[in-house]
Amino acid sequence: MTQALHLTNARLVCPAGGERDGELLIVDGTIVSGEAPSHAERVDCRGKLLTPGIIDVGVARIDRAAARAGGVVRVAPMPDQVPVLDEPGAVQRLALIGRPDLWIHPIAAATRGLAGTDLAEMAICLSAGARAVGTGRGWIADSGVMHRVLMYARDLDVVVVTHAEDGGLAAGAVATEGETATRLGLPSAPALAEPLAIARDLMLAEETGARLHLRCITTAAGFALVRAAKARGVRVTCGITPAYLLLSDNAMSDFRTFAHLSPPLRSEDDRKAALAALADGTIDLLCSGHDPRGPEEKRLPFADASAGAADAATLLPLALGLARDGRVTLPRLFALLATGPAALLGLETGTLAAGMPGDVILIDESAPWQIDADRLPGKAGNTPFDGLPVQGRVVAMWKGGRAIAG
Fold it and tell me: EC number(s) on record (predicted)?
């Protein structure tokens, strides 16, 4: 007998099909059209949002509890894991550990040991389960190496995910050069470090015809470069995390290490430029950048603390806030959270269309709660949004039509 799940009385939000009231049928793990069989399990969604499951690209660590809380059904971890994802055995092991509830699509290292010198065995890593190749937390300074990476990736038809910060300018910096960094006496780098790196990588991508994904763009100049490159037909996409849409470097004013991020928080003008890029379609992906860090890494002087934020569990409510404020529509929001990431990784998922995997989440968009760093599910609660009132919680999720316990 087939396994069937019939979700009724839902407010369906689909990047491909828009927003409407209706029902969804999942049979043997796949969304189908037609009448529900008599033996189907029926779930009354009571008018709540039913959306594609979130695909989180560029997480630093695998964190099942945080992913479940945030409605994340698939993740693409960065290559700078332990060990580095530069050989097929490491890639394959990571790709298999999350199933069946959390599917893992590794980003393999573009260079051996992420050292930025010798190319890694990309083709073998792709055959082992990698869905992209990347530079990790660093930028490949050698333009010749980056050119070879892009040419190899082009021939393999795989996207290169890069961290866009010129290491020569950003080395040792924990803040963006400006009034806040000066007042706090923090080591800083000019925001120029980002567009400088972007400009070179865009030129190389344009010359080679390779696919380039800029993992987290945060500056007005960076968005302008990406916008212009897209207009020229360069195969480039870019992402962002909510922190750079909602916070400026003023969030660092009391030396809060939870606001020590990579890239560092930017100026208010850059934040406004990020919102404009979200609205005009320059930004393709919205991700958490999930990087859990314990007290031993965060309860230190700001300059000594590790950069990173654990925001897989907060991504959804923060994103819903952007829709509530009129920054994006709900279908566009889930294009950023699901369809766009799926396309980047070459996955046939991310919508509620018939034939797609039954990876869906049920959301109470009006459920109020307050982000509490001490109570966030997952490996750590180091979020710059600690104490922020938000709305929206995942009340149920299904992976391939199978309920995932919260």
Answer: 3.5.2.3
